TrEMBL record:
Record has DNA damage as a keyword: no
Chain ranges of the UvrD-like helicase ATP-binding domain: 202-547
A Gene Ontology term for the protein's cellular component: cytosol
PANTHER family with a match to the protein in the record: DNA 3'-5' HELICASE, UVRD / RECB / PCRA DNA HELICASE FAMILY MEMBER
GO biological process, one term: recombinational repair
A single MF term (Gene Ontology): ATP binding
UniProt entry keywords in alphabetical sequence: ATP-binding, Helicase, Hydrolase, Nucleotide-binding
Listed name of the protein: DNA helicase IV
Positions bound to ATP: G223, A224, P225, G226, T227, G228, K229, T230
Organism field: Streptomonospora salina
Keyword Mitochondrion in annotation: no
Entry-linked Gene3D superfamilies: P-loop containing nucleotide triphosphate hydrolases (3.40.50.300)
Length: 707
């Protein structure tokens, strides 16, 4: 393999490539102009019958136009595959020689968008096209027809600065394990200055197989920190939209679920950079929430409320609502009165309750059945029934009042409020399912009188959603990508599963990073609750983010927090990347400030992860010391507005920083039941350097000698 070419403008090859890049950019601009100018609104009939179709066409045009822009300083292509002449492009002898159809080779440029020239010939091929798969997967062992792979290096202004050639056939195709490594390492180590970037130029073979896996069955990826799960999930969405766009649209679109707003803000630019602008990015609370979250549960109540037994408690409570009447129903019609005794009405009710119907359908069916009973009486009495009699009977005041009493209308919020504020009612519904202690744990605090005044938690939301679904079906999506799925409670899994009845899921996570009290310790359990027991389970174990020295250190916690899970391997070695400073209480603030000042001398981001309770105090200390800093979670752009960010440990999941300072690990570990899992998350956020500052003893698993 040749070394990356130095950025010399004199290099004729580099000059040729730059010229081609400029041509490709101009061609992309023309394609954009074509979309926005050629297809004017007049092209679409303005006939009223076509209003809806026209709107769809305009939206589609807008989407295509958006997909052709927004590249900013992003390189238009990042790689090239050379095939033997004529292997890819058909050509006649008189065809001109071009960049892509050289005399010696057919060249396929791989990029973020498909770009063609004015004659329709491809200049750059979309990375998602089948022909592009070889860019990620071919190697000397299996060249897949490729003679040479070229990778490009770019400046921040998206100008080509280097290229790296890798012959895949012939004598030059030595089995060079380092092929592509230098650009990969450079890409990973490029200082973080903003939100997450796409990895389309350097997707690794094991990642590519997951990105391009078919939409069904559901795919579940277990991966250690920094193995690229989030990146894989996002690129997979772009891939599935490329291959199955129409079907996904018809089925309700694609949703990505992340653990919190900070995380979603962090990943928000990846899909647009890949040309996909219409994907919903939600937290689970946003997906299912019918009331704002105002409270955090205690560990025990979160565990019980997240347990799948709660689904049965809610089902029972809902179906306890229909009540047999106490009085005879009397229906007046003209001068006649028809009576239906209470026990006969009770039979009608019982029959209906024994059927598998949505609760919300009950009143309609009940009024129909009662009307029939009255109708039969009328007919048996020899009275002729008019064609509209049945409908009249259903609307009869006495009938509608009886239906209202027998089958009360259910509102999910009121139902859960009633259940969780009335110990007797809860005891009836939870009999044999929850212990008395568990019943006590799930009661709402205070005495809220209405859903509005209740202090709902995220766990309550899943209960409300469960109730809502028993009343009527929710809207569904075509595909849901769930990131950090290890934290889902069974009740949250059920809520997601209901929204995916026709579609499939991509489930991403790491059991070792599970911090929620109701989290499962095996993927099989999660998949069962998601209604996807046949999902394909894949493992990613090459860590790209965290240097080996840091990941090895953090992995000391694994035997305790995730026994049975193998330690990941860090693909990058960075001697000196780990620092541990023990200090006394007086020196603590100085030591943290000093670690940050040191880190800020280099380029890139610095995240200081602390126990949640300590973040604000640390932020003040930084202010006193004249260090500008933000607090993660305080605003959408908190991670970008400052190079130095205080990160409450519960918001660290999924994020990364060039340097991470973990301040007082013991307090992070002590703050919650799964505190060691949380600490493992905190220790694995660093791309280049991890600095631990502590006054209290380190957890035993970390205190052992390091290499
Ligand atoms: N093939 C790759 N090329 C370049 N960068 C990569 C590649 N794979 C992963 N990365 C980078 O490694 C970092 C970690 O990736 P990502 O956040 O997707 O990992 P993760 O498995 O979701 O981590 P965690 O479990 O800690 O949230 C990111 O900066 C990502 O861009």
């Amino acid at each position: 393999m040749s070394q990356p070419t130095p950025p010399s403008a004199e290099d004729p090859e580099l000059r040729t490539e730059r010229t081609f890049l400029a041509e490709a950019r101009a061609a992309l601009q023309s394609m954009h102009t074509d979309v926005v100018t050629t297809e004017t609104v007049q092209d679409y009939s303005e006939d009223a019958d076509y209003t809806f179709t026209n709107r769809l066409l305009r939206m589609d045009r807008q989407r295509r136009a958006d997909a052709l822009t927004g590249l900013g300083d992003t390189p238009l292509f990042f790689g090239r595959l050379d095939y033997p002449c004529g292997a890819v492009f058909e050509r006649a002898p008189e065809d001109p020689v071009t960049h892509t159809r050289d005399r010696e080779a057919d060249r396929v440029y791989i990029g973020r968008r498909h770009v063609h020239d004015s004659a329709g010939s491809p200049l750059v091929v979309d990375w998602r096209a089948p022909v592009s798969a070889a860019f990620y997967r071919a190697g000397p062992d299996d060249p897949q027809g490729v003679v040479l792979r070229r990778r490009y290096g770019f400046s921040d202004e998206a100008e080509i600065t280097a290229y790296e050639d890798e012959p895949l056939t012939g004598a030059a195709a030595a089995d060079d394990g380092d092929a592509g490594r230098s650009l990969l390492a450079a890409e990973i180590e490029r200082p973080r200055t903003g939100p997450m970037r796409d990895i389309v130029a350097t997707i690794q073979p094991e990642q590519d197989h997951l990105v391009r896996a078919p939409m069904r069955p559901t795919l579940c990826v277990q991966g250690a920190p920094g193995t690229g799960k989030t990146a894989v999930g996002l690129h997979r969405i772009a891939y599935l939209l490329y291959t199955e766009r129409e079907r996904l649209r018809q089925d309700g679109g694609v949703v990505i679920l992340g653990p919190n707003r900070s995380f979603l803000s962090y990943i928000r630019r990846v899909l647009p950079a890949l040309g996909e602008v219409g994907v919903r990015q939600n937290t689970i609370e946003e997906l299912i929430g019918r009331a704002p979250v105002r409270r955090t549960e205690s560990t025990e109540s979160e565990r019980v409320k997240g347990d799948a037994r709660m689904a049965e408690v809610i089902r029972r409570d809902l179906w306890n609502q229909p009540r047999p009447p106490e009085e005879t129903l009397i229906v007046e019609r003209g001068s006649r009165r028809w009576r239906v005794p209470a026990d006969e009405l009770a039979e009608v009710l019982d029959e209906l309750r024994s059927r598998d119907i949505a609760y919300g359908a009950g009143p309609n069916l009940l009024s129909q059945r009662i009307a029939h009973v009255v109708m039969r009486r009328i007919e048996n009495d020899g009275e002729a029934a008019e064609p509209g009699t049945l409908a009249q009977l259903r609307r009869n005041k006495a009938v509608t009042a009886a239906v209202r009493r027998m089958w009360p209308k259910a509102d999910p919020l009121k139902l859960v409020l009633g259940l969780l504020t009335d110990p007797d009612r809860l005891a009836r519904a939870a009999d044999g399912l929850l212990t008395p202690e568990e019943q006590k744990a799930v009661l709402l605090p205070g005495k809220p009188r209405s859903p509005k005044s209740a202090q709902w938690s995220a766990a309550d939301q899943a209960l409300i959603d469960e109730a809502a679904t028993l009343i009527e079906r929710p809207d569904t999506c075509g595909h849901i990508v769930v990131d950090e799925a290890q934290d889902l409670s069974p009740m949250h899994c059920r809520a997601i599963s209901r929204r995916c009845t026709r579609g499939s899921l991509t489930v991403l996570g790491d059991i070792a990073q599970a911090t929620s009290p109701a989290a499962a310790d095996r993927w099989e359990q999660v998949l069962q609750h998601l209604g996807q027991p046949d999902a394909h389970l894949a493992v990613l174990d090459r860590g790209f983010r965290v240097p080996a020295q840091i990941i090895d250190y953090a992995a000391g916690l694994l035997p305790e927090i995730a026994p049975g899970l193998d330690a990941p391997t860090g693909v990058r070695s960075a001697p000196g990347s780990l620092h541990v400073t023990g200090t006394d209480g007086d020196g603590y603030a100085d030591a943290v400030v000093q670690a940050c000042r040191e880190a800020l001398k280099d380029e890139g981001s610095v995240g200081v992860v602390t126990a949640d309770a300590d973040a604000a105090a640390l932020h003040r200390i930084f202010g006193d010391e004249g260090l500008d800093s933000g607090i993660a979670g305080e605003s959408d752009d908190a991670l970008e507005a400052n190079r130095l960010v205080c990160v409450p440990a519960t918001l660290a999941k999924g994020l990364e920083f060039d340097t991470v300072v973990v301040a007082e690990p013991a307090r992070i570990a002590a703050a919650e039941a799964r505190g060691l899992h949380r600490l493992y998350v905190a220790l694995t956020r660093a791309v280049s350097t991890l600095h631990i500052v502590h006054t209290e003893p380190l957890p035993a698993a970390l205190a052992r000698p390091r290499r």
